[in-house]
């Protein structure tokens, strides 16, 4: 998801493309164990108009449309721009709300049966999409996938997207979540700082520990993080476990399998690495009390060298980033010769989930606004305005990219087939953000040992696995 935090959100890819083009993740089958679905049939759909070549979804001209857009690291101007085109075509003015309070503002409306039509469900206070899908409150978006694209009517919308976008958005067999962005997660740094100091970006845990000692001697904190949202650290920590231990063992964690945390040697190595960083004082003092914005500001002002984050950070931190900062992202660190995945492995996956409320007044209009958003025009507008890639294949071809976005695109290209998607944070946010986030907070302040973090992480995962009130999902290896 976008940011204020983002939870980001998303396996392997079949191939990588040229600079500025994303690799295509080959995602394993994702299924929900819950009954119910994401909307199923369109029978009885509200405000249905007449379909035509120019209006393949049958949007009713003049029908009101309401959009709730998460206004975090990506802002909401890109959505307003798409809404302007919708307004011209369908003779209405979209009722637009930009907010970081998606869940608090919309939970009562879903309960009352009057949700808005299109929702960018991102941020710390997002809606529980798993529950909404299981309750049948999300519109099945298959009709959107099968509609002709705005750029080439001979192509369906689905043919313009990276396949991982479709797989990521499924609950059971229903496609009801449209992930619009493609986020690169990792360790972010200033190319200028490293170059000026003569430091090379570390390729391994051992190299990182050695470099941290040099950075600290130079009077700079090696790391900072948003202690108010400690799950930002999981963007790196979880992916490192998958990189070192192998995707199959990570999938066991995604699937809440017994002993998945405690029996995985990669977990011990990765969590132990963070324990060592904390023990040696390699985190900026006071990071445990910082928000995402405060930690990013400390980083862009040179108080810390590294920060765990997603590619939305370039846009979100723009107000405090020096023009010559040289924002960049690095690949995951090597653990040793026994790593299951090679150097260059990267976590990069669909993000920024959009949903259409089945109970909205104009769900067809909500889908049409998404169709506009995935046109090349608006995909490029998104890249320009918020410095982020989208789910649209080849949308940034030939564009002049900002430093952070160019670095992210380069990292994706170099990652090739070794792009990771992590589902745990998406499927079980209360487990990862609250329970494990609390453990990570204690780990990074030295209050908790790695062994205890792992033991408690397994305990919390087991509790979720046994909780019949939590919708369960399964990911094929």
UniProtKB/TrEMBL annotation:
This is N-acetylglucosamine/diacetylchitobiose ABC transporter substrate-binding protein. The lineage of its organism: Bacteria, Bacillati, Actinomycetota, Actinomycetes, Kitasatosporales. Gene3D superfamilies: Periplasmic binding protein-like II. The keyword Signal applies. Its main location: other. Residues 37-57 are annotated as: Disordered. Belongs to the bacterial solute-binding protein 1 family. It comes from the Bacteria. It is found in: Cell envelope. NCBIfam families: chitin_NgcE. Keywords: Signal, Transport.
């Amino acid at each position: 998801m976008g940011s204020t935090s983002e939870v980001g959100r998303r396996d392997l890819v079949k191939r990588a493309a040229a600079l500025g083009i994303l690799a295509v993740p080959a995602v394993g089958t994702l299924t929900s164990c819950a009954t119910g679905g994401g909307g199923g049939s369109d029978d009885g759909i509200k405000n249905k108009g007449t379909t035509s070549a120019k209006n393949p979804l049958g949007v009713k001209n003049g029908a009101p449309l309401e959009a709730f857009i998460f206004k975090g690291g990506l802002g909401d101007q890109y959505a307003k721009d798409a809404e302007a085109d919708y307004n011209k075509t369908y003779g209405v003015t979209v009722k637009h709300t930009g907010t970081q309070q998606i869940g608090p503002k919309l939970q009562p409306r879903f309960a009352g049966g009057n949700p808005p039509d299109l929702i960018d469900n991102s941020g710390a206070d997002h809606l529980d999409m798993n529950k909404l899908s299981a309750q049948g409150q999300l519109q099945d978006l298959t009709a959107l996938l099968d509609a002709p694209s705005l750029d080439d009517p001979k192509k369906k919308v689905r043919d313009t997207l990276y396949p991982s976008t479709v797989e990521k958005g499924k609950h059971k067999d229903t496609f009801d979540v449209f992930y619009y962005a493609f986020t690169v997660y990792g360790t972010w740094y200033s190319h200028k700082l490293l170059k000026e100091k003569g430091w090379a970006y570390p390729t391994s845990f051992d190299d990182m520990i050695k470099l941290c000692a040099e950075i600290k001697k130079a009077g700079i904190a090696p790391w900072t993080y948003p202690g108010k949202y400690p799950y930002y650290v999981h963007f790196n920590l979880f992916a490192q476990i998958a990189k070192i231990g192998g995707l199959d063992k990570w999938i066991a964690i995604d699937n809440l399998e017994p002993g998945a945390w405690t029996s995985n040697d990669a977990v011990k190595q990765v969590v132990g690495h963070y324990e060592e960083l904390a023990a040696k004082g390699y985190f900026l003092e006071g990071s445990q009390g910082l928000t995402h914005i405060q930690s990013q500001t400390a980083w862009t002002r040179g108080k810390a060298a590294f920060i765990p984050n997603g590619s939305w950070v370039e846009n979100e931190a723009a107000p405090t980033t020096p023009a010559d900062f040289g924002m960049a992202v690095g690949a995951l660190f090597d653990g040793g010769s026994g790593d299951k995945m090679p150097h260059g492995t990267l976590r990069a996956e669909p993000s920024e989930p959009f949903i259409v409320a089945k109970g909205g007044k104009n769900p067809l209009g909500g889908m049409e606004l998404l169709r506009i958003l995935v046109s090349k025009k608006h995909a490029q507008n998104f890249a320009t305005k918020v410095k982020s890639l989208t789910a649209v294949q080849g949308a940034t071809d030939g564009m002049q990219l900002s430093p952070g976005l160019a670095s992210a695109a380069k990292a994706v290209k170099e990652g090739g087939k070794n792009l990771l998607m992590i589902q745990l944070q998406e499927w079980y946010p209360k487990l990862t953000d609250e329970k494990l986030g609390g453990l990570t907070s204690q780990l990074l302040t030295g209050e908790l040992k790695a062994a205890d973090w792992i033991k408690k992480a397994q305990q919390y995962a087991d509790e979720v696995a046994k909780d019949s009130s939590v919708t369960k999902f399964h990911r094929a290896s």
